Amino acid sequence: MTGNRGQRAAETGQIGVCGKCNTPLPLRFAGSGEEAALWLCAQCRTRYCAVLDEQSDPQLWRNVRLAPLRFQRHRLAPPPQVTAEFIARRVAKAYDGPERRAHSRRSIATPVTAVPLDDHFLPAGEPFIGMAHNISRGGIALIHTRSVTVAHLGVELVLDDTAPIRAVIQVVRCRTVGLFYEIAGPFVVRIAD
Fold it and tell me: Which residues contact 17 (CB under 8 A, 6 or more apart)?
């Protein structure tokens, strides 16, 4: 960065805008005790080693992508058959309560590869495969055989023979549902291909 913009960024810790295409970025430099993750500008794919500024306007979060994660689905054990049967029964039951979400949900029964991420969006555990049971434009709920204690999950799933959906969710709920755990949360940022 050059000139006043570079000086302002150094003083505030904010990156502010992409140095290549001037897209506003919700990124800041890592502070003491923080670890930076690799982020890409969504417009020009310029890379930044930075921290997502969670105090920034969430509308700006669409301007960045978390660097690709290694989901390696082929190395993971598929969910047990009993999990798929449990999801199928849940999906078959129509939700008839009041919709509390900003976006309407769609019942699904599809495998989701998940990578636990820490507060800085860095891998923080072994990947696993769960089963999604509903999704909306705003978030997803999945079933797994174990609970999670991380703040975020990187998720990858395929719907309707389209390109994979790769995004980070903020884990806002992890509760027991029968013999399983329901893990749910809103989509936070997309993950680069």
Answer: 5, 23, 24, 25
